[in-house]
Amino acid sequence: MKEFKNKVAVITGAANGFGVEMAKECVARDMKVVLADIDSENLKKVEADMKAKGAEVLSVEMDVSKFEDVEILAKKTLETFGSVDLLFNNAGVVVAGPTWELPLNDWDWIMGVNVYGMIYGLKVFIPIMLKQDTPCHIVNVASVAGLLTTPSMAAYHTTKFANVGLTESVNYQLQAMNSKIKMSLFCPGFVQTDLHNCDRHRPERFAINRDEPYYESVSYKQGLERGKHVITTGIPVDSIGQSIFIAIEEEQFYILTHPQYAPVIGGRVRNMLEGVNPSVAMFKK
């Protein structure tokens, strides 16, 4: 995609972090923007800010882990703007902790948002884009955590590896049918977003049960502290939107933010090919 003026962008997770930066870049390119998020308070603030810049904006309070909500998002987008040209599958959450300690409710939540939320976005919006038969682009937001692994955040790694595999495979499918839909896979490292505060946006059905011993455990408290540290000390978020749009314009599939992780990603692949077993020792250096 090279032309953006008057095109329509749909952004999930638009009330915070990457979503806000994506929205700003869309507005700067004179696009019509659909902001979708479960965080109604911040969603209204972002909508007001975009409208103050003269943008045509629709905000939709919704939950990406509900297929019917994603269908409603598409319906409202088409009713308001008539088409969709750019989709940012951006909404995401994080939980940390040992797999055997993590409550199943946490697994259900992170899988529902990070994996099924992306699947629902593709299932609903790709048919619309195919029917339009116009140049379109989809940006799926994964993480460098989908390209390498660490001893912590097993649930997060699980969902982000799923994002990577899903996006690569769907991209092949679209290429095989000579579709006009292009895709990008955004795999950022640590960036100063609001991700470590995502518990505030849990739907009631995934609410933390304080009767669960895990939420009083050292593992849980250390996970919260670690998450806050790596996010708040990450790179500034304000360069992200422009980087993503450059990738869209150049039809670049992989979008990474931290070159210093390249040797780790490459080393992981090399170890697989050479039959070297993964060892936790590398994290103790």
In short:
Helix content is 46%, strand content 13%. The chain is built from 8 helices and 7 strands, in the order βαβαβαβαβαβααβα. The longest helix is centred in the middle third of the chain and has 29 residues, at 104-132.
Notes on the structure:
Helix content is 46%, strand content 13%. The chain is an alpha/beta fold and 285 residues long. It has a 7-stranded parallel β-sheet, sandwiched between helices. The longest helix is centred in the middle third of the chain and has 29 residues, at 104-132. The model has no long low-confidence stretch (mean pLDDT 94).
CATH class: Alpha Beta
Residues in helix, %:
40-55%
Strand content: 5-15%
State the helix count. 8
Briefly note the structural class of the backbone: alpha/beta
Instruction: Quote the CATH topology.
Output: Rossmann fold
Number of strands: 7
End-to-end C-alpha gap: 44 Å
Overall residue-averaged pLDDT value: 94
Q: Could you give me the name of the CATH homologous superfamily?
A: NAD(P)-binding Rossmann-like Domain
Uncertain stretches of 5 or more adjacent residues: none
Please summarize the sheet with the most strands.
7 strands, parallel
Q: How does the overall form come out from the CA principal axes?
A: globular
